[in-house]
Amino acid sequence: MENLRKIIHIDMDAFYASVEQLDNPELRGKPVAVGGSSQRGVVSAASYEARKFGVRSAMSSVMAKRNCPDLIFVKSNFKRYQEVSGQIREIFHQYTDLVEPLSLDEAYLDVTENKKGNPSATLIAKEIRNKIKEKTGLNASAGISINKFIAKVASDINKPNGQKTVPPEEVIEFLEDLDIRKFYGVGKVTAEKMYRLGIFSGKDLKEKSEEYLTKNFGKSGGYFYHVVRGIHHSEVKPHRIRKSLGAERTFNENISSEIFMLERLENIAEEIERRLKKSDVAGKTVTLKIKYSDFTLQTRSKTIGYFIASKELILEIAKDLLYQEKMKNSVRLLGITLSNLNTDKNEDKEEKKEISVQLKFKF
C-alpha cells in the first residue's frame, strides 16, 4: 500500500492589497486596487472589498473604476511585499524544509514528516495560519490533502481566512462534486470548451476516457484524466526550477510609432538582463507580448540554437518579432519573456497508477 503524503497549500488572502491596508489604516474596509491608476494601467491585486464589485487582477484600471467608482488605487511596493513574504516563509520553515514557494503569497509545504512531530497536517496548517496572523497581522487560507493539486484546489474553498482538509477517504467524492472551473489548470477558455462537451463537474470529467480527453485537450487531457482520480505525484520541490523570466510595461498613452516602441523594448530588455544576471540564467526562446488599445493580445516567439542573456541579443530578436507583421492598432502594453532556460530539466514522468487509499492516514 502506497505511503501517502501530507501536503499543505498556504495562500495569503488578497496579499498585496492586505499589506497596503495593514500599513495604511485609512485603507482598511475600503475597496483598494494595487497597481494601475484611475486613468491607465492594469490592476495587480484587489482587496476583498473591491472584489465584491467585480474588480479582479489583470483587469484594466478603467474597467475596474467603472465597476467600483469608489475604488482607491495605490502604487505597488514590491520591496515591502518581499519583506512580509520573507517573514511568512520563516514560519513555514519552523515546520518543514520541504517548502516550495509559488510566488510571494503562496507555497506548498510537505509535512508528512515535520519538525514538530505533529501527525496532523490539519492542526499544523491552523498553527501556521495563527502564527502568520500574530507575526504579520495578515490572514491566510490553507488547503490540506494527499497531493499538491488537491491541496491547492482545497485552499480556495473556505477563503478568506479559512482552511479545508480533504482526507484520503474523501478525495474521490470531493473531486467528483467539484465544479470544473475550480480545477487548477482549467482556465476560462478550457472551461468553455468543456461546457460545450458536456463536462460541468469532476464527475462528468471522470466519465471521459483518457483517449477522448487527449484528443480534445492535447497533452492537458492526460493531466485532467489523472488529477480527477486523485493522481498527482509531483513532489514539493524546495528549489523550484524557474521556467521563464520576463518584464512588461503598460504605457500612460497608447503608442503607434515603432520608434517609441523600440525605446520601450530597449528598457524592458535592460530590465530582463538585470534579472537574468541576478538569477544567473540564460534562455533560447524570446517571446514578444503586444496588447493593443482595443485590449486584444498577441504574442510572437522565436527560438534560437544557443543561450542568450544580454540586452543586445534579446532586443535584436524582439525587434525582429516586432517587425514580423504590421501593427493592427496602437499599442498600450509591450512585454518580453525569455524561456527555454538553461535551468530547465525534464520533470520526472508521473506514473499512471491509481492511489491506494490509506483510511488510517491521519489528517
Automatic annotation (TrEMBL):
Keywords: Cytoplasm, DNA damage, DNA repair, DNA replication, DNA-binding, DNA-directed DNA polymerase, Magnesium, Metal-binding, Mutator protein, Nucleotidyltransferase, Transferase. CDD domains: PolY_Pol_IV_kappa (cd03586). Pfam families: IMS, IMS_C, IMS_HHH. Its main location: cytoplasm. Residues 7-187 form the UmuC domain. It is found in: Cytoplasm. InterPro entries: DNA/RNA_pol_sf (IPR043502), DNA_pol_Y-fam_lit_finger_sf (IPR036775), DNA_pol_Y-fam_little_finger (IPR017961), DNA_polymerase-Y (IPR050116), DNApol_IV (IPR022880), PolY_HhH_motif (IPR024728), Rev_trsase/Diguanyl_cyclase (IPR043128), UmuC (IPR001126). The active site is at 106. Mg(2+) binds at residues 11, 105. The keyword Transport does not apply. SUPFAM superfamilies: DNA/RNA polymerases, Lesion bypass DNA polymerase (Y-family), little finger domain. Its cofactor is Mg(2+). Its EC number is 2.7.7.7. It catalyses: DNA(n) + a 2'-deoxyribonucleoside 5'-triphosphate = DNA(n+1) + diphosphate. The record marks 16 as: Substrate discrimination. Gene3D superfamilies: 3.30.70.270, 3.40.1170.60, 5' to 3' exonuclease, C-terminal subdomain, DNA polymerase, Y-family, little finger domain. Belongs to the DNA polymerase type-Y family. HAMAP family: DNApol_IV. PANTHER family: DNA POLYMERASE KAPPA, DNA REPAIR POLYMERASE UMUC / TRANSFERASE FAMILY MEMBER. Poorly processive, error-prone DNA polymerase involved in untargeted mutagenesis. Copies undamaged DNA at stalled replication forks, which arise in vivo from mismatched or misaligned primer ends. These misaligned primers can be extended by PolIV. Exhibits no 3'-5' exonuclease (proofreading) activity. May be involved in translesional synthesis, in conjunction with the beta clamp from PolIII. Monomer. This is DNA polymerase IV. The lineage of its organism: Bacteria, Pseudomonadati, Bacteroidota, Flavobacteriia, Flavobacteriales.
